[in-house]
Batch of 3 targets.
Target 1
Amino acid sequence: MKLRCDSVDTFPSPCSRCAKKGTFCEVDRNFTRERKRPQQASPDAMQVPTSLAPRNGALNAPFDIKPTAEGSNTDPSGSATPVDLPTVKNDNVKEYRIGNLSVPSAQVDMMFATFSAQFYPFLPAFPIHHIHPQVLWPDYELLFWAICNISARVCAPELVDVITLHLRSLINTTYTTHYIFRPFTSLTHVYALVLLCHWPLPHQTFQEDVSWTYAGIATHIALQIGLHRSAFTEEYTICKDGSQKYQARALTWLACVLVNQEAANLRGIPSTAAMDNLFLSSLLKVEHEDKNVSEMIKQARLLHALKGGIDKLGCVDSSEAHARHLVHRACEEVLASLLPEMMPWAKMTELVFLQAKLQLHSFLLSPDTPVKDQKDVIVPIYMVCIQTIQVIKSMLDSQKSHQYWPYFVHTSTISAAVALFKLTTCPYRDMIDEDTARNHVTDAYTILKTVTRVNRDVADRGIRLLDALSIMAKQETYSKELCIVKTRLGAGIFATALLEFKKWSRHQARQEKDEMPANGSMGNDIAFETFIELMTVDNLWDWGTWPELETAIPFPLDNGW
């Protein structure tokens, strides 16, 4: 006789048999349900009762789903949660207000058109047809004014200061909102912050640049809403039209990875955003019609390989310094293996590749690396810096759009020029062609002169730095060592030059202060002091700069610490 278990009727209480025996009630793993009866045997089962059918359209279902619709998988190129992308509104806005200031709609339309045509191709991580003032205003104000701020530097400079102040206030308040529950709003916040990292807010000193902070905020929001995780291949979705939404999420996270790694390389610290291989492979499966999107994916692949190399080289401590060149060679081969799949590539992608190589090479210039290994990397660094300046020079000659270049191009020019200048004064200068190196430093100086838009922007500060280095070389106050500063990402050629510049600038300031006339005038050369005081990397890991425990802590340390 076949017994029937009454667990279905008693759930969540245990079945009668288990309750009687006092045992834990659990369905066996080998249990299988009885197969459903075929449709031919129960023709009435598929008929919907008339009483349940909607009457006169009053109870319309939220989704129009056909009875025979099949479940579909999510697009593997995106994240797990879809995003509802809004459409252009029909209402015509005549003006947009920032406090007491009114900006005409015609001027805003011009700024959006400039952004879409000139700036957007460098970072196409957001659907272009949603970059419209009537879509973003007023619900997505942060992205709206971020786009206006970037474009106003070219077509409406009189509005830059006002929009910048408003943006800083918006970012401080936006970060505390419940962005997790508004997917498209959070996506616009992340993209706005990423844009302000690629084209930072106007600043006059290195430490005034808040792009690294904004990159961290953008990454944190993106992690909170799951942009970093691609969707599972068998994930259920109710409709098949979500590919555009998933792609928007995936590309937004890609932009976070790009700006994080670029900013981290400049500051000599590890990046805070990473990308797994599953996420990257899912993006490569999709054919992208926009070539700019394809180039951005190539750049992300290069920086992903660079981050892997940094993680490996960073694990080699001083006791294993003799093996550092082997790890470096393996990382360089991984980076080079990507080239066949990326050709042809754009100039910007080539520039990312060259800067990635320069970052890898810097690990072999650490003071604890054997001299032989340091010598082996001198010529590769020299070649990479030469190629970097040549690529930027060709971009300047062919595109004639330097006013739209991202911040990364300017910093790459400065770092390559400084590295070449250091190579011409280091003990290994006989290994390179000094005349060629000096000529390319001059080319970089000319490029910075051309791309300078306002006083004390990043290009102008780079010119001041190169001028000061040349004066230091003539005065023989310049160190002959190639690198005396070690950052978290290997030897810091750029940081070394800044540190020496800071010492020289302070010495010059003290001398001019002693010779200062009675009227208090100190001359024009002292302008270097303000620049270098803030355009430098703090030596955070130097224990000599940390406070003494006896003076910093007012109580004894014998209480179990």
Target 2
Amino acid sequence: MKESLLYWKRWRERGMKESLLLEEMERERDEGKSALLEEMERERDEGKSALWKRWRERGMKESLLYWKRWRERGMKESLLLEEMERERDEGKSALGRDGEREG
């Protein structure tokens, strides 16, 4: 009976050790998977953010270039308009002076 109890005690301890070892191996496997998964997700997200950053910078550059050109065009048109108005006004005054001379 003592041998039988000793056998079962050892069997139970061995089973517990194997169970603990198995749990430890599974935990390490899962941690390894999660660490690898986290690393892959981080690399993916960094790639996305790098892509987003490049896209945003490109968009900002294009936007700034667009507004710069629009402003320059507006300034040119404004200067052209001012010049046309000045020529018109000068023409009117020249015409007015000519009219005074004739009259």
Target 3
Amino acid sequence: MQHWDADEERSRHMARFGRRDTAPELALRRTLHARGRRFFVDRRISIRTRARADLVFPRARVAVFVDGCFWHWCEEHAHLPKANAELWRRKLLANRQRDAWHDAVLRSEGWKVIRVWEHDDVQAAADSIEAALDRWHRIARGPSWPDRHGPDRSTLRQTPRACQPRPPPAVSRRAGAHATDGRPDTRWCRASRPSCGHLSCVTR
């Protein structure tokens, strides 16, 4: 087992960085929230990995990871500590390999994985996330209703159904009223009203 020499200054420096709610994460969350996007934060989404996505959109199955340049070994900005440089290099390369394995597992389960570096422009990162969400919405919505179910018949003229009289209610308002000739007074009997709104069905 490799031995790490004590580096108190480096330990204190690393202890200041939490695993979640970092400044880049908060900036990205504020930007997406201002655009009307809602999401879950710091959530484990697969039982096959221990990875916890920083932002999760469950319905669209989009997982966003905001990676720090040091711990995830950004080739542009990461710098190895002078103490134990070789051990740090191995550890950080192992972190990158672990990230790649997590991405492969999540993609095999149908997740869209987006990784954002802490040095990326927050507006550009939000644009890429929204583009993935918009693509999902277009796929989920699918073709319009007429395309899936045949031509749109809402504008076609329909032959009115035969007007079927409604059965008389048990107790009708003035249902027992009769005209002078002994026939029911249909002016007050709801059963005499047409059951549809077509002009051809109105009782003459």
